[in-house]
Structures are given as structure tokens and as C-alpha cells.
Design brief:
alpha+beta, about 25% helix
Length: about 170
């Protein structure tokens, strides 16, 4: 990623609201960036149960969490929410989205959205710190999807450590 890493400061508060629609369901959403460079995309319609959040640093966004209520799963809402998040981040100058997860259902979802598993050594220690990735166990053994599939076959629902997924959202490639 970035060898000469400097933490870029974003405006104190940035907020935009939109209404998304998928499968006939209209969902009002709000995207916010706060002064500590954290971001969230949520819908008040679902008491903030429908949300995703993370951190931004130097053009890289780290998605910490994505939550879709059980009654809304399987309707394309997760894809729509992630797509909207990527659009808002891209509009704000973010070029790369990364995430770290251990739950195989979530990893598979991100893989289906063109994220790729990347080796942890592609992310500098400085970037890991700025994106708060230095506070959690990340599996350095997994270098790609083949390694992931081996571990997934043994641990169906959750891996012991998180893995890193990445997508270049500037032009939609990994």
C-alpha cells in the first residue's frame, strides 16, 4: 500500500443522506465521517441495526463491521449497502477498501463482492496502526483464497484469526 504513510485528516463532520431501494424495499440511509476519521453508513428505519462502520486513513478505508438484520438477509440489501458505502467512500477520495473478518459467512460475502484475500505484509505497520488493525489477531498464514478454502473446510463458521480482504474501489478492482 503506501510506503510514505501520513495520516490524512478529514473534515470534522461530513454527512449525506440518501434513499436506497432494492427488491421493492426503500431504505433511507445516512453516511457520516466524524472528526476522528471514523465512518458509518446506517438506517434509522431499523434502529441502526442496519449499518456498517470503520476508519479512514490516507485514502484507505477499513470496514470494521457490517450488520444486516436477519429479516432483511438474502434480499440483496447487504450488496446494496456495501455498494453505497463504496460509492460514498470513493466520492470522498478513498481508493482502497479493506476489511478483516473471521466469520466465514462474512468473508464469503465480501469475496462475492470482488474483494480479494491479501497477505498481511502488503499493509505497512503504520497503516495497520492508523486503521486499528494492530489490535487484533490477523492470520499471516493465509495468502489467498486457496489457503482460506483449506481453513474454511476445517472451521465451517469461524476462523481462529481474522483475514484481510481488499478491493480497489477507485476503479472497482482488487
Amino acid at each position: 500500500m503506501n510506503e510514505n504513510f501520513e495520516n490524512q485528516k478529514y473534515p470534522e463532520i461530513f454527512k449525506v443522506s440518501t434513499e436506497l431501494e432494492v427488491a421493492g424495499i426503500k431504505i433511507p440511509t445516512t453516511f457520516e465521517i466524524k472528526e476522528d476519521n471514523s465512518f458509518c453508513l446506517y438506517s434509522d428505519q431499523y434502529e441502526e441495526e442496519l449499518n456498517t462502520n470503520g476508519m479512514i486513513s490516507n485514502g484507505v478505508a477499513r470496514i470494521n463491521h457490517i450488520h444486516i438484520p436477519n429479516e432483511l438477509r438474502g434480499k440483496g440489501i447487504g450488496k446494496m449497502l456495501l455498494s453505497e458505502l463504496e460509492k460514498q467512500l470513493q466520492n470522498y477520495g478513498v481508493h482502497t477498501s479493506i476489511s478483516t473478518f473471521s466469520k466465514t459467512e462474512t468473508i464469503d460475502f465480501f469475496l462475492s463482492q470482488d474483494y480479494k484475500i491479501v497477505p498481511t505484509d502488503t499493509i505497512s505497520e503504520e497503516e495497520r496502526g492508523a486503521l486499528y488493525m494492530d489490535r487484533e489477531p490477523i492470520d499471516d498464514w493465509i495468502q489467498g483464497e486457496d489457503d482460506y478454502n483449506i481453513l474454511k473446510s476445517r472451521n465451517k463458521k469461524r476462523l481462529r484469526k481474522k483475514i484481510v480482504l481488499s478491493k480497489n474501489i477507485k476503479n472497482g478492482t482488487s
